[in-house]
Amino acid sequence: MKKITILIPAYNEELNLPRMIEALDRLATGRVRAAEGRESADMTDYEWEFLIVNDGSRDNTLKVARELRENDPRVNIVNLSRNFGKENAMLAGFDFATGDAVIVMDADLQHPVETVPEMVYWWEQGYEDVYGLRRTRGKESWMRKNLSLAFYNLLQGTTRIEILQNVGDFRLLDRRAVDALRALRETQRYTKGLYCWVGYNKKEVLFDQGDREEGVSSFNFKSLLNLAIEGITCFTTAPLRISTVIGFLISLIALIYIIVIVVKTLVWGDPVAGFPTLLCVILFLGGMQLVAIGIIGEYIGRIFSETKGRPVYWAESYNEKKL
Ligand code: UDP
Ligand code: MG
Q: Which among 6, 7, 11 is the best mutation to test ligand 1's pocket, defined by most ligand atoms within 8 Å of the CB?
């Protein structure tokens, strides 16, 4: 019997977890119907694991998860020693997952269990990476929606790897794709890009993103901006090249300007207004240099944290066992 792991990264999800496990139980016992006209596999043909990764929650998530485990042997718990962020928590999940396929789902029930039978169906058809494509994004601010679209366009425009739009972490991965992801141990993880990096046969499945059931989203504007910078600096060196090109263009313009001034002075004997000209050039170049240094700094920062070679996460315990 093939085994499917549902991987649930959880940060402060004490209210959502019981509902999530209940929904998954309905799924595993074949009580969830796929949407009308959709392909679907029989969920009772599989063995299940519900792997909760507690990402250093500050509430009772761990306690709730342990209670769930007492009543349901399918629940396994990885407890991280502190909050490492969702990207890192997912890697922990991939490391501990025992299934032949792993499905990543948010704990807040934004990813509908109804989509899973169709994902499994396509997995059985030989696709290693079946990803959920958001048809609707649920309640979300106008700002967040549009900024994230703009970001995807920017990223796609500057990297050779295909980054899929409107695709989140809700996806089914075959064991082979999971092992490929586990081989990528970079600490600055932009998992959405990594899925594309590992390749394999991909298949999309549409779903409607629900609204968060309880609690608040842990991703605010600042953390999304960080994720965006992560995405760009992890997957493209285009900004470095752009700053080189801009620097080159500015030098060229300056050179032309110098020639113009020299010719004007020699031929027409024009006096040059020195101070304003100088000030403009100095301020402009100074600004450009700071930008370029800032960009380089971002990459050096990445190099710094990668060279330390620290593990991506630290697991404190697996089920009852201290690690
Ligand atoms: N999450 C996590 N670690 C974090 C932040 C979030 O494991 O540091 C989990 C969270 O519990 C949820 C999923 O990642 O299962 C998505 O988080 P959230 O719903 O806050 O994000 P959004 O849906 O707003 O993108
Ligand atoms: Mg959410």
A: 11
Ligand 1 centroid – CA 169 distance (Å): 10
> DSSP label at 45?
G
| pLDDT tens, residue by residue, 16-38 | 999 999 999 988 888 888 777 78
Ligand approaching nearest to the C-alpha of 104: 1
Per the listing, tokens 């991703």 go with: 219
Query: What are the distances in angstroms from CA 38 to CA 88, 127, 168, 204?
Result: 33, 17, 21, 13
Average confidence (pLDDT) per 10 residues, the chain, 323 residues = 93 90 90 79 89 92 91 92 91 94 91 89 92 77 79 75 76 93 87 84 83 73 79 76 83 84 80 74 82 83 83 89 81
d(CA 197, CA 184): 10
The residue to mutate among 104, 108, 111, 145, having the most atoms of ligand 1 within 8 angstroms of its beta carbon, is 108
Confidence (pLDDT) at 272: 67
Q: Is 220 in the pocket of ligand 1 (CB under 6 A)?
A: no
